[in-house]
Design a protein that fits this description.
The chain has 6 helices and 6 strands; from the N terminus they run ααβββαβαβαβα. Helix 4 packs across helix 5. By secondary structure, the chain is of the alpha/beta class. A 6-stranded mixed beta sheet has the order 1-2-4-3-5-6, with helices on both faces. Helix content is 36%, strand content 15%. It is globular, with a radius of gyration of 17 Å.
Amino acid sequence: MAERASSHSGGPRTVLRQLGVPRLGVPRSGVIGGIAAAIAGVAISVGAGVQRSVDRAVGRRRPEDLLVDPDGFMLHVVRPPNSAGRPVVFAETGLGGTGADWESVSEFLDQSAALWVPDRPGLGWSDFRPDGDAGIPGAIARLEVMRAAAGVQEPTVIAGWSLGALLAVGVASVRPDLVAGLVLVEPSHPDEARKFSDPSVNPIG
């Protein structure tokens, strides 16, 4: 995935480098390929736990930012203290990122728009979901929870960065009634996502 590193965001390659796993030219099949895949899986799992700790240390959390989805799981949303009188824009962040990635954008928008960005399940302050709530269906579910909390009934602008841009396009394709426009920031190409079988990394199938 085409991710740009930040202080509290990073993709699998960043995790592997941090853990000291060497970059190897490994064939797609064979024993070496299997070992490399196993190492990568463990490294990414460990990195995800470290990432969650970093996200919680960096991102702010207020009680009013914790929403409850229909299944009873907590969804943390980074949003302005008061969204009244401004159009609400919803966004999805990049792979491994959280709503905190968008705080500077929210500050820049200031009084022109209220930006709401969720931590996806298992990241930041959002609850882990056994079903993963991944891909486009998960993005639509999060959007509906945020729309209800914001009191929004009309179609709105959806923004997305990198992997989040694919999710935004997917939401617009499946539920055009919810979307008035799209803002795509350094969007990942669908061909990149198709390389992965994990629906959280390949939201388009």
